[in-house]
Design brief:
Elements (H helix, E strand, L loop, with lengths): L30 E5 L10 E18 L4 E16 L11 E5 L4 E4 L8 E8 L4 E8 L4 E4 L7 E9 L5 E10 L6 E7 L2 E7 L7 E7 L12 H6 L3 E6 L4 E5 L5 E12 L2 E4 L6 E4 L1 H6 L11 H14 L6 H14 L2 E2 L11 H8 L1 E2 L1 H15 L3 E8 L4 E3 L1 E5 L2 E6 L3 E6 L5 E6 L5
Parallel strand pairs: 19-20
Antiparallel strand pairs: 1-2, 2-3, 4-5, 5-8, 6-7, 6-9, 9-10, 11-12, 12-15, 13-14, 13-16, 16-17, 16-18, 21-22, 21-23, 21-26, 23-24, 24-25
Length: 430
Amino acid sequence: MTGIFKRILSAASAFAVAAGTALSLPSANIEADAYYVWSDIEVEEEVVEEETFVFDPNNFVFDSGTGVYVYTVKPSKTTKTTSTKSSKNTVKKLTCTATTGTTADLQWKSNSKAKYYKAYMYVASQNKYGLWEKFYATGSHTLTGLSPDTSYKFCLRAFNSNDKVLSTEYISFSTTAGAPKLVVSSSGTSCTVSWRSAQKDASGYELYYLNKEYRTWGSSPTAADIKKNGFALLKTSDKTASEPVGIKNDRQRTFVVRTYKVKDGKKIYSDFSVPKQTMSTEAYVNALTLKPTAVVRGEEYELTQKYINKWITADMSNYEKFDKILTEVNAHGSYQNDITKINGNRNVWQIMEKGEGQCATWAFCCYAMMEYVGFDIRVPRGVRTSGQQHFWCQIQLNGKWYDFDPHIGYGLSENEDNQYRGYIIQEYFG
């Protein structure tokens, strides 16, 4: 018998008594059974040895730390029973079926005698397995609280109703890297998809898309989710962390990305990013329900009505209406540097009839015409990143406000990506 074991002896046999009590020694011929237990899991084979010992009353010491007398016994006969991973009670076929950055799914053949299980994680610095968690299961369990992009060794032990170990099984696996952070910005029929990798030493990526809305929000999809929902691989590369991609008119797209690193010729993938969606400008605008209103009066109203009737027809889509108004307003007039020559109360007239203005003139002219048609539009006033005061327009699409500048030209972007800061002017006085 190899190794140093702690003797756990029966108190009834008086083999260990509390310090300070009367010591009654048994005769040298009394036999006692000792059951040996590993206090830590350090080997991949479970051995239970039953031995019959003869007590030697002349060989004992007092342990001041525990306050008990500990006796040395010599075996007179030994019966060994070895239980290994191949025994009939073993947690058979333990496998790791899937991992994420923080979880691992374990699966095994259930043991009918098992009441509960304990999972132990190997701690390299201590060269032993420490208890991770206790759980009740029938053949599968998800380990949680793991670290991304990390290799693990775990031990799974089954216990019966008497809290005795039935079996032990070992497994090694690696968690995936955390999900990249994905950002999608769009304008017109193009968008830019970019991400920041959470994987150590990532050597490439895979970008997937879906030509419709992906309705599961707030978490990273699994590889099975990607396949089930029909995502298609758009591009794989080892060179960049952003991609310009096109979006067809009247189309919505959903993107996900995952990174990978190559080890021993095999790709090791990160988790998928949380899906990000975008629409073409046309799709956004055509989804609007227009509610025509008249926000200007007098001459400004008559001029607005004149040009809308000239440009807009009943068979136009929302996007065509938007594009026509923005294009025409932008094409009229030239920039007038002398602000004293600008009448801020006659913006439609100033652009469409006089043919000159400044940023506010174009913004309010466009505002009046699009409000007349029915778009939910407003004019922000603020300053550029350069410090200059500026006016532009925002239109509400699908619950978000998107920026465009009638003076600079056509274009939409999400308001958090624009170059301005300022506040909203809600009214237009004509």
